[in-house]
Automatic annotation (TrEMBL):
Keywords of this entry: FAD, Flavoprotein, Oxidoreductase
Organism whose genome encodes this protein: Catenulispora yoronensis
Family matches, as PANTHER family: BINDING OXIDOREDUCTASE, PUTATIVE (AFU_ORTHOLOGUE AFUA_1G17690)-RELATED, FAD-BINDING PCMH-TYPE DOMAIN-CONTAINING PROTEIN
Annotated InterPro entries: BBE, FAD-bd_PCMH, FAD-bd_PCMH-like_sf, FAD-bd_PCMH_sub1, FAD-bd_PCMH_sub2, FAD-linked_Oxidoreductase, Oxid_FAD_bind_N, Oxy_OxRdtase_FAD_BS
Protein name: FAD-binding oxidoreductase
SUPFAM superfamilies from the UniProt entry: FAD-binding/transporter-associated domain-like (SSF56176)
């Protein structure tokens, strides 16, 4: 079957992997080890021509299509059962123009590949916090991390993109060309076509930055979470932060051995300016409530970008639920403290991203991002488990935790990149009806047959 199919994709330069091939299991694996999807064909594309050839082949054979970047979507959208997978992993070249401060990044690159190339010039663009995440899926949904406070989301730094549409045509999306498409791909996910190249604006960052982790035990939950909130809600320019709510202390060299795996809460602070500015914020938090331990150190920006990799290794079993909070009120903090003590897997926790600063300087309708730009917290209830039993127990935990936090949430919406089981109601809620309608009209123009549907799907508007 493999030869037949391989040779049947005319002019395809990459490798075609089918269930009969050795390597099929490796080719269909995604980050979430709980996903066991069996696609019909994995078309490992080497360039945009391969993408067009694979899409044409799927069309001719009546095969559904899924698109694979870094494979981090929790629900396994990248390798949908019985579909043809447009696998972009080999389209991962990154070139940097340091004068123009622009990076060209292949649609299948990982964050670590983008960072490695840009850091050669002391530059970076905002992305996520785990280095093996795909630039593609992360960017198309929004993309936030340490640099978001200073420079916004990945989409806020997207200059243009090269795409292959469902009908195989090649287009550019930018403020000057196909501006509606350019608006839609900045938050509307992989609904509109396959991005083979992103171009990002870059900023001077590093190479050395400052990192800190302040860790409090579970017993100090309510007080510690309030200090963490007050600190992260009031960061000066030049700092970015993340809360690890209900995190077990990593068994890492910078954690005193007696506290390895201790359950608690972590305030993580990254500083991109002077060491003193970072130290002042760390000292202020420390003096409000002395932590169990802390760690403060300069480190390369690329090390900061991979500091959390071990918390979410590929192949681990995972499930997630997310929501936006306008504020971490006392009520919300009490729920967080209570549920942090009730998780089952030591690896489960709630990463809480503060969204403000440059993120909030962008008007709501400037991009298709699914969520308001008002300052907020994105709370991700991440169940991360080494065994099926723990996965089952913490899936129930995350669902109950989510229901308990819902009364404090901003609205029904949440970040589309944190939706493991997107249903139509939640997708519409993520964008709000007006934005969703605008996206649906653009979808009808660029993908009227809804070829790109294995995602947080925007249905084409009736024409
Ligand atoms: C461990 C971990 C850490 C994370 N940390 C963060 C974080 O810090 N910040 C954040 O914002 N998000 C984070 N996320 C969420 C992440 O943004 C999403 O999981 C995202 O979908 C990952 O993209 P991917 O390319 O790796 O995934 P894939 O599963 O490969 O792709 C997801 C979907 O994106 C689309 N897609 C991917 N690439 C392309 C492309 N080039 N062209 C067209 N469509 C494409 C497809 O529809 C695909 O189904 C994290 C996820 C995990 C698992």
């Amino acid at each position: 079957m493999s030869d037949q199919l391989g040779s049947a994709i005319p002019a395809f330069q990459g490798r075609v992997v089918t269930p009969e091939d050795g390597g099929y299991d490796a080719a269909r694996k995604v980050w979430n080890g709980a996903i066991d999807h069996r696609p019909a064909i994995v078309a490992q594309c080497t360039d945009a021509d391969d993408v067009a050839a694979a899409l044409a082949f799927a069309r001719d054979r009546g095969l559904e299509v899924s698109v694979r970047g870094g494979g981090h979507n929790f629900g396994g959208n990248a390798v949908w059962p019985d579909s043809l997978v447009v696998d972009l992993r080999a389209i991962n070249q990154v070139t940097v123009d340091p004068r123009a401060r622009v990076a060209r990044c292949g649609g299948g690159a990982r964050l670590g590949e983008l960072d490695a190339a840009t850091q050669e010039h002391g530059l970076a663009t905002p992305s996520g916090t785990v280095s093996n995440t795909g630039v593609g899926g992360l960017t198309l949904g929004g993309g936030f991390g340490w640099l978001t406070h200073d420079h916004g989301m990945s989409i806020d730094n997207l200059v243009s993109a090269r795409m292959v549409l469902a009908d195989g045509s090649f287009v550019e999306a930018s403020p000057d060309e196909n501006a509606d498409l350019f608006w839609a791909i900045r938050g509307g996910g992989g609904n509109f076509g396959v991005v083979t190249e992103f171009r990002f604006a870059l900023h001077p960052v590093g190479p050395l930055v400052h990192a800190a982790m302040l860790f409090w035990p579970l017993a100090q939950g309510v007080e510690a979470l309030a200090v963490m909130r007050d600190t992260i809600a009031d960061l000066p320019p030049g700092l970015g932060g993340l809360l690890g709510v209900g995190l077990n202390a990593p068994p890492a060299p910078f954690v005193p051995e007696q506290h390895h795996l201790a359950p608690g809460h972590a305030l993580l602070l990254a500083g991109f300016g002077a060491a003193e500015e970072h130290a002042a914020v760390v000292d202020a938090a420390r003096s409000k409530l002395p932590p169990l331990f802390d760690f403060v150190s300069p480190m390369p920006y690329t090390a900061l970008q991979s500091m959390l990799d071990d918390a979410a290794p590929p192949g681990i079993l995972a499930y997630e639920r997310a929501l936006y909070l306008n504020d971490m009120t006392e009520g919300a903090i009490e729920v967080m403290a209570e549920f942090s003590a009730r998780k089952n897997s030591p690896m489960s926790f709630a990463p809480v991203f503060r969204m403000d600063g440059a993120f909030s300087a962008v008007p709501d309708d400037a991009t298709a991002f699914g969520g308001s730009r008002r300052p907020a917290y994105t709370v991700n209830l991440a169940c991360v488990a080494p065994t099926p039993d723990l996965l089952g127990a913490d899936t129930a935990w995350a669902q109950e935790y989510w229901s308990a936090l819902r009364p404090f949430a901003r609205d029904e919406g949440s970040y589309v990149n944190f939706m493991v089981e997107p249903d139509q109601e939640r997708i519409v809620a993520a964008y709000g009806p007006e934005k969703y309608q605008r996206l649906a009209k653009i979808k009808a123009r660029y993908d009227p047959e809804n070829v790109f549907r294995h995602n947080a799907n925007i249905k084409p508007a009736d024409r």
